[in-house]
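pinning this so it doesn't scroll away 📌
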Amino acid sequence: MKLLFAEAPAPKLNLSKKLLLLNWPFILLITGIVLVGAASLYSVAGGSLDPWASRHVVRFCFGLALLFAVAFSDIRLWLRGAYPLYLAALLLMILVPFIGVESGGARRWLGYGELSFQPSEMMKITLVLALARYYQWLPPEKIWRPDALLPPVLMIALPILLALAQPDLGTAALFAIIGGGLLFLAGVSWFYFGAVIVGVVVALPHAWEKLHDYQRERVLTFIDPERDPLGSGYHILQSKIAIGSGGLAGKGYMQGTQAQLNFLPEKHTDFIFTMFAEEMGFVGAVVLLALYLLALLFITYMALRCRSIFAKLLAAASGSRFLAYVFINVAMVTGLVPVVGVPLPLVSYGGTSMLTMIIGLGFVLNAHINRNVTFRRSEVRALW
């Protein structure tokens, strides 16, 4: 552990060196996943680039520029700015109930004219940065102490409460998963996780009473989708029909009846995996999941090679966020968890979600490029 907290000066890397250190196979892999998404969106639109496939590719090209910008940036800047960025994202989330844009009965966006974004997506990145910075300077022997656990728990709890107020139960759950995953990676005792699980179980009856009607309906539909097959259960029933009808080899590209005949709702966003499984079958679905698994193995490899706690947690937590999105989306469309509106990374149509996911992957590459960098407080000039 002494190596992780070394006070040796961090080496400076020029651009040519960073280009050599960049994990190009990983970039090619995520590009391949995006192209799978573009092909799926082309199929969803009935063989047209508009309105989704072309925008998906354009957004990825813009996101790719952001990925390189983040990957080649000085990791000390992110360590120095972690807390201010977190506070900025927190402030934007606080502003949402007052000046946010309402859609579908929920107020989750900030925007002007046709431009809008979800501050909660920004928070998913800055939360990782802030927690990773906290554990960078925390001595290993203090990780298990309750007083050392209070600051990170507060950093996680505040965005969770703000997300619940929007209301956005899915985002609140993602904050808990991302934050809890990073605490686990940092070495927090299993005892605390067990206490949280017991507390959640005890609080379930009270939490049930506080849920909105549509949220209760989602849970009841998850338990028994056929209780309202033409209403709240329609989405998941059609999703299961589409996946099951795909069989082993699928119906063929652009031949999925559930998607092409518009029986499948939200087929370009939350349920795009369903559409893909119907057309490409079990084999195609497994291949797509294998690509995600390969990406996660790349991320794990890059995280394990980092010397500093900050870089290691930054890469690993970004990977756990990537995993959480894939798992929740696939489990959601197959009926294993309630429908919560989580997109499939790099495949589902969506601007803010794609860009923030790519930025997160940019941090993974940044950590990999700076894997031999260690920090001194005097270098970082900590603001807090």
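📌 and the second one:
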Amino acid sequence: MNIAELQKLTDWLIDGGRSTTSPTRFMAECCERMVAAGLPLWRVGVFVRTLHPEIYGRNFIWKPGAEVELGTVDYHILESPDFHNSPLKIVFQQGLEVRVRVDDPQNMRFPIVNDLRAEGVTDYVALPLPFIGGTVNASSWTTKQPGGFTDEQLAALRSLAKPLARVIEIISLTRTAASLLDTYVGNRAGERIMGGQIRRGHTETMNAAIWLSDLRGFTALSDRLPAETVVDILNQYFDCQVTAIKNHGGEVLKYMGDGLLAVFPIDEYVGDEQQVCSRVLEAAQESRASVASLNYPIGDAVERFRFGVALHVGRILYGNIGGGNRLDFTCIGPAVNLAARLEKIASQLKRTVVASEGFAGVCRGGWADLGEFPVAGFSKAARVYGLADETSAA
């Protein structure tokens, strides 16, 4: 063991491992420094829980001479036999260290022993990584050294786990903040907020295609069904749109009851307005098909659903709006107002997809001119277009 190198490593961790630029690079450099200090590591794993609606945790796996593997697990891991029979379950739930010597018969209760033996591993130790907030995450350390880890090497791993946990906690908190912002306000808005746009008045103008939709008959639906059922229906209904919106370059900004507001940014300098609007139309057609196939069993009946979406293109004001220290990152402007009015017209016409003259003019083909309609709050009537393949339905 090289005590001087271990001290340098400890100092590097206390300093935040600032010579690295990413979590995977931090993991790689940390393990490489440990090996250089005399720790005979073969495989190292760091397992961190996260605050995410779909992802239970992330894992980082290092092996000498290989790229760090980054993986995720969903909440089903808690029900899997692999987790229940793993030393990591003890670490996560009890915060205890677990050592598994491959040649110790008592450790045969862990199925992982057979995998370790096949890999040539002689010793495995799982160490808790306690965070200041009280949660406990986990790390695993293996070696192929004959006889396993020595007492001195184990002591070194235990002493390094504490500063390592601090750095991982900082990285984890930063990622969690970004993930929560992404979950609740969207990726682009989250990036801006994390970048410092947190004051009222921090806004910018942006050219974008605008998507505004709602579920037909939602008021009557919510009046006759239990609230839990309505929430479940809404979640499935929004799933029909969000996947298509994200896959085609859009970002959901807001849910308003059964309403959904999304934007598809247009780069004016690249001149991709036509491409963006084409992708928006594709997303609308996919959502129309998904909602049409959505059915929900309620008692002996099956509920079917219809929705409407208005598409427009124009300039919007995008940023922080609100009062005091309670802000909302959203978009406003005449273009958004017109999209909202068009969505109401779509409902009146019993249309699924309608578009403004501006949107239909950019994304040509497949439209039927539905005529001009007075628009509340606007001095001029708006010409409205519907998809030609909905003519018979109208």
